[in-house]
Amino acid sequence: MNYHEWLAKGAPPGKGCSLETIQELPAEFPFFSITAFTNTVSQLRTRLGKTRYFSAPMTHASGAAFRQLIQGHLADENEHAKYTGFTQMYTADALLHNSLLRDTVLSAAAPGENIILQLCGNNPSNFLAAAKVLSSSSLAPQIIALDVNLGCPASCASSRGYGLYIAQNWPLVHQILSEVSSAQLFPVTCKIRPLGTIEETVDYMLLLALSGASGITIHMRHTTRQGKHAQSVKPAYLEFEEIVYAFRRRLDVFLDSIGKRKPTKREPNLYPVIILNGGVKSRQEADDLLSSYPADGIMIGVGLLKDPTCLLKNTPDTFEKCKTVFWIKETLKYLDICESLSQESVDQEDSLKVTPMAGYKEVVGHTMRFMQNVSAKRFNEPINKTKSIAELRSLLNKILCAQTSNCSS
């Protein structure tokens, strides 16, 4: 199929219409430039600097306060330069048309914090317009890259036709990435899941690179695998290795073919940045993967949600009966950051107010997850009944007082 015929099949779906399934590459990419490709990859690698660890984009769970908590722990070991956080997923259309959400997005980073901001949607023009809004905002200098979500399997993504559900229409994916990357406002990255076979995934990654993606995060979870099989660890990592090496070979062949030169072996830093996501719970696991597999970085989601200290080389040592004290203090530290970032109190009645942290729903969520480290579900109900950070702090201080006396006895 020639390029223009292929591209015509990527029109955004109308309301209530499903996307056409087109999972093949065109015969050529007439507008691809080796120079532009090399420059964007180099720009992203320069902006990332020493970053090797990334916190995942998680809805109502990856606000600025939580990222600053992680960053603060790493700063204690002088390793904060190795960490960058993704924001949660924001809809490009809503950023343009919802002033409250736009204010939320434009205050998504703490002062001095560099972020990768994730967008989702299925309209190339709106993606570009959203990127222009961001590039003209005061947040622009803090944005390392814009990440296009191509892997979200949630029902909201299915009903609205974005995330994992536009992966079935490669011409549309190409239009979104090429629209934003060709404007040269920010480096463009994307987050995907592996497709049905390694060959399909490699073709898809080639499409992403040739469309302007200078970085790809691969979440090594197949949506077709159910239950414990979806969480498989070692087999998924071995598959990741095979995918990345096959992708690099395919990219080499393509670049050499349009460059009309003999095949060459490129340095790893000339390829798009590859981030491995899935199942990592500790610094040791992350470092083992970085040394064993062809990944430029490791993304951690659930591991950090449960324990924001998990990226430390030397994890805090707590006695079993003093664990509750440790996690209450960790939560209070998080609340301190929330209040330092927010110029206004955050309460349940204004749950979307983000200045620049998340709403109270996220605050309660993190508190409960921290307390689950000591199986303290008995605290869930009183925590849920609080309506402000001040109330939550008061409750935690009462629990801390009781637990401290038990710990010292």
UniProtKB/TrEMBL annotation:
The organism's place on the tree of life at top rank: Eukaryota
A Pfam family annotated for this UniProt entry: Dus
Record keywords, A-Z: NAD, NADP
Residues of the DUS-like FMN-binding domain: 56-230, 273-344
Molecular functions per Gene Ontology: tRNA dihydrouridine synthase activity
Signal peptide extent: none
Protein name: tRNA-dihydrouridine(16/17) synthase (NAD(P)(+))
